[in-house]
Design a protein that fits this description.
This is ABC transporter substrate-binding protein. By secondary structure, the protein is α+β, with helices and mostly antiparallel strands. Helices cover about 40% and strands about 10% of the residues.
């Protein structure tokens, strides 16, 4: 379901050409002052609290400050890419749209988005974003302004660990977490759950792979390297959680992260440790306030003695269309959304990590101590490779991960088959 909020009655902006044709839009430095002061902006998602904040507070304030008119459309994540594809073909692309970092390379390769390097380098507080800006880099150029930050870490129930005689201070490696999960498992409770639903399984895999010093792709992005010994080690670990005599978890491929907060395994006590993002954790605490003092967060565990990594970094970022007639105004909107006051307010409402380092001392963070470990782990966050074919590659890999997790294919065979299938996708990108 698309949720559309038209903030002002404006006439739709006629974009100059079909983006798929490439190269027909306004050049990088033009168009900012020649067109009407109007913007069309698409945000992904359907969170009502976010929609209300953006459409009733943030955007009206931006309009007042700039004398502009902004039309905002919210699009559900599953519909975002198809809707953008249609817009590219019909020449009705919004001036600004939000998306994940995995889409950056494809947009850049098709010349659909504006490189932001000159504008970003001119920011006096550029360093306040830490490493988030780098996740929007494709071929050495920046295309994304961070809108939200995220991370996926292991969250545990202190009371359940204490009952099983497990000291959370000892859980510094994936090996030690597995050993603890064996002690924590009962007939009614999983010792540990990690995200294994389709697509989420790839995010769990890349965290383990990178923790084992492995790589998804070669440096040039043309060859799969996830079927390396490190990849086999990572996937074997995942499979062993759910399969065999040493299994510590039930419900492989179950999308527990999509359940209502009060129905989460940690809330029900049907798991002692699970993977969580900050938004899901804060929603859980809001739904179950009695759990606030019973929850703890682990730093990214090591694997095989190598430094731990976790999936995370930039959650959603904002792109500017290469064909926008209002690029300067679009950039002002990106600057506004990423400003300290606005970005902190946005993070607090949606429950994400702030995109700025300076926000660590904000009231939002200090009143939510569970966020401390998520913020401290930011240097260890890694995202997916920025290559044009990544979404297709990810989907292929996820399909084979599902087969391995179900015990149908050995980890090495699953990764080898996935590497072979994605070969033409990568070579053609």
């Amino acid at each position: 379901m698309n949720i559309r909020r038209t903030l002002t009655a404006v006439t739709a902006i006629g974009l100059s050409a079909v983006l798929a044709a490439c190269g027909t839009g306004s050049p990088s430095g033009s168009g900012g002052n020649s067109g009407p002061k109007e913007l069309t902006v698409w945000f992904p998602g359907n969170s009502q609290v976010e929609i209300d904040l953006v459409t009733k507070t943030l955007v009206p304030k931006f309009e007042q400050q700039t004398g502009s008119k902004v039309t905002v459309t919210y699009v559900d994540w599953p519909n975002l890419s198809p809707k953008l594809t249609t817009a590219f073909a019909s020449g009705t692309t919004p001036d600004v749209w939000g998306h994940g970092t995995a889409a950056a390379a494809g947009f850049a390769a098709n010349d659909r988005v504006l490189a932001l390097d000159d504008r970003i380098n001119a920011l006096a507080d550029k360093d306040d974003f830490g490493g988030l800006l780098d996740q929007g880099v494709v071929d050495g150029k920046h295309y994304l302004m961070p809108l939200s930050g995220t991370g996926t870490l292991l969250v545990y129930r202190k009371d359940l660990l204490q009952g099983a005689g497990v000291d959370p201070a000892t859980l510094t490696s994936w090996e030690s977490v597995y050993d603890a999960a064996r002690k924590l498992k009962t007939k009614a409770r999983s010792g540990m759950l990690i995200a294994t639903s389709p697509i989420a399984d790839e995010q769990s895999f890349i965290a383990l792979l990178r923790s084992a010093s492995g790589k998804m792709l070669s440096d040039d992005g043309k060859t799969a390297e996830f079927n390396s010994p490190a990849g086999v080690q990572a996937l074997t670990y995942m499979v062993n959680l759910y399969q065999g005599d040493g299994a510590v978890a039930a419900g492989v491929s179950d999308d527990y992260l999509s359940r209502p907060p009060a129905q989460q395994p940690l809330a029900l006590g049907t798991a002692a440790i699970t993977q969580f993002g900050p938004s899901q954790l804060l929603q859980l605490v809001k739904a179950k306030p009695d759990l606030a003092d019973k929850l703890g967060v682990l730093a990214p565990p090591t694997l095989g003695g190598q430094p731990g990594k976790a999936y995370g970094g930039m959650g959603t970022g904002l792109f500017i269309s290469k064909d926008s007639k209002n690029q300067d105004l679009a950039w002002k909107f990106l600057e506004y959304m990423a400003s300290p006051e606005v970005s902190n307010q946005y993070a607090e409402v949606i429950g994400s990590l702030p995109v700025r380092q300076s926000a660590r001392s904000s009231a939002y963070v200090t009143k939510n101590p569970l966020l401390t470990t998520f913020l401290a782990a930011q240097p260890a966050y890694i995202g997916n490779p920025n290559v044009p074919a990544w979404v297709q590659v990810r989907d292929v890999l996820s399909r084979y991960l599902q087969q391995a997790l179900a015990g149908k294919v050995a980890p090495k065979d699953a990764l080898d088959k996935a590497a072979q299938e994605v070969k033409p996708l990568l070579e053609g990108s």
